[in-house]
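Obj.: predict assembly geometry.
Materials: sequence records (below).
Method: joint structure prediction, all chains together.
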Amino acid sequence: MAGISSPSIPVTDRTRLKRLPKRGVFDRAAVYDILDEGFVCHVGFVVDGQPFVVPTGYARVGDEIYLHGSAASRMVRSLAAGLDVCVTVTLVDGLVLARSAFHHSMNYRSVMILGRARLVTDPAEKTEALRAFTNHIVPDRWDGLRPVTSQELLGTSVLALPIEEASAKVRSGPPVDDEEDVTWPVWAGVIPLSLEPSAPVADDHVGPDVPSIDVRQAVNRRRRAG
Amino acid sequence: MAGISSPSIPVTDRTRLKRLPKRGVFDRAAVYDILDEGFVCHVGFVVDGQPFVVPTGYARVGDEIYLHGSAASRMVRSLAAGLDVCVTVTLVDGLVLARSAFHHSMNYRSVMILGRARLVTDPAEKTEALRAFTNHIVPDRWDGLRPVTSQELLGTSVLALPIEEASAKVRSGPPVDDEEDVTWPVWAGVIPLSLEPSAPVADDHVGPDVPSIDVRQAVNRRRRAG
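Observations (raw structure tokens):
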């Protein structure tokens, strides 16, 4: 909905990294790759001065991300009221083991989006958002499903948050030990971590004629960088 | 520090689940199992009315979780000032694929802790916290490392958040389709997901006499439930 977006996201006082600025990423394509690979975001909002951080699914469409939930939920009510929100997506890529406790770290890619959401009320856009949620979980899943009903559309609240004030933070590569420590006799390096699927578990109603799901392909297609 | 804690965490208006109360867990042991399995938490705090959600490492010791960072970071400054905070840890366990878009879901376990942190200033407690961070990443890692220096202790800010107002949310099991949908000809069930390690990547300084790291054992020891 934002029309043509610039390839880089403007840095603001709120998204500029005060520390370790080399970890900051404001390239729109890099931010979107992280958003497209994650399954869960953490939504931060404030009620009576108390911040809440709620994990939930999401999907990116163009320069917005969609969130959804029950109209009765605290999160949906807060966001629909136009409260300031922060949505963060974090991918954990590895444990960084150094020779001193101080230099232990994690490899990760995270995106933080600040702004205010709008409540999506148009049924066509709501349907598009539901399609995006579904295909974000498994690509092309939507087309094989029982079509969505108007009652389901009414029962789901959809929110759209523009990706205007946003930044990514990335840490990658080996540990950075102090020079005098590199001969310390302990293993140091990276243990890569990734969210991996295991064998799918069909529910009790899947008939013998229903084709199984190709999990590896579904998950790998999410990862542009392999 | 909290002495003897009760086996259940009191439910408050802020942690009671308004929706799907069957997903709520207030058993202290279950909450701690989730905290002990995660690597990254999402810390929510408010600056000038804007919520921020920042991913960071953590470790639980008794009835508190420790966080750390540079004294200059926005997160540490905000938490050290005694602001209200929300710390959320989420473990993604699977994709729940139903026969309708509406009933797609995720299996997950999450913990939300509300409260105010205290800045840890005692060097002995700070050292204990650093040990906890390190051994939370890889069990028993601390003892083999180059000992921490007093400058490193000074350069690290440690915060402790009591686990007093907290709750867990858990979704597990197969999709719950509408009864009239169970014959719809599409695969439905769960694709289990877990954060898995792959082969460790030693850095350039690991000598031939340094024993390698047993990744599988290190990661599996974190998971009480297999």
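Conclusions so far: DSSP finds five helices and twelve strands in chain B.
To do: check interface contacts against the pulldown list.
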